[in-house]
Amino acid sequence: MSDRTATSKIVDEIIRFVAVSGTLAAGMAIPNLLIALEKPLNGLLNTLDKRDQDREVRRIISNMKSNGYLVSGSYDHGLQLTEKARERLGKIQFENLAIVPAETWDGFWRIILYDIPESKKHSRDALNSTLRRIGCFQLQRSVWITPFSCRGEIEIVCSHLDVADFVTYFEARNLDNERTMVRHFKKKYPDTCFS
């Protein structure tokens, strides 16, 4: 992994950390930040000793401030995400989006259908590839299906691609070709009970 890729991943993890915690307290020592981010950063900084890790994270945070990702607040409010960082966080969330399979299927089908105009063809194509990537099955040209709850994930996708006005999400109890769908998803998710 190149230094640029490693630095980019560290920036992403710091943005996630600040987003979850609300702020990066100005009084929070870098070693404490390293401890908090130890698992996500495992492998990215493991070639450095603790002192060099501390120095590298300080350098990255300084660059994040210079590049407009973090802004200093008061001592109590520490470092906060800027709008630029929130946009990057949205992109990170979109790229890492996944539908979490349930241990036991609840018997409901989640159906996503859309009618996206030709003027948004790029967004329509991105929606199709994203739905495929997160585990949905294309039932018809503009109809996708999954047995797992995913309303939040679909809202994130639609918001990111700016197609929410053209997409409908609903749940159904019965399908005409349900056996075929159950067989398909049993193969894809063998750990889920579909009985």
What does this structure look like?
With 195 residues, the chain is of the alpha+beta class. It is built from eight helices and six strands, in the order ααααββαβαββαβα. It has helices at residues 3-21, 30-36, 38-41, 50-66, 83-95, 121-133, 151-161, 178-188; strands at 70-72, 79-81, 109-114, 137-140, 143-146, 167-172.
Strand order of the largest sheet: 4-5-3-6
Our Rg estimate from Cα atoms comes to 21 Å
Largest sheet: 4 strands, antiparallel
Percent range of helical residues:
40-55%
List keywords for this structure.
single chain; 195 residues; alpha+beta; four-stranded antiparallel beta sheet; two-stranded antiparallel sheet; elongated
Topology of helices and strands:
Blueprint: H1 3-21, H2 30-36, H3 38-41, H4 50-66, E1 70-72, E2 79-81, H5 83-95, E3 109-114, H6 121-133, E4 137-140, E5 143-146, H7 151-161, E6 167-172, H8 178-188
Antiparallel strand pairs: 1-2, 3-5, 3-6, 4-5
Helix pairs in contact: 1-4, 1-5, 6-7
Question: How would you concisely characterize the structure shown here?
Answer:
Helices cover 49% and strands 13% of the residues. It is of the alpha+beta class and 195 residues long.
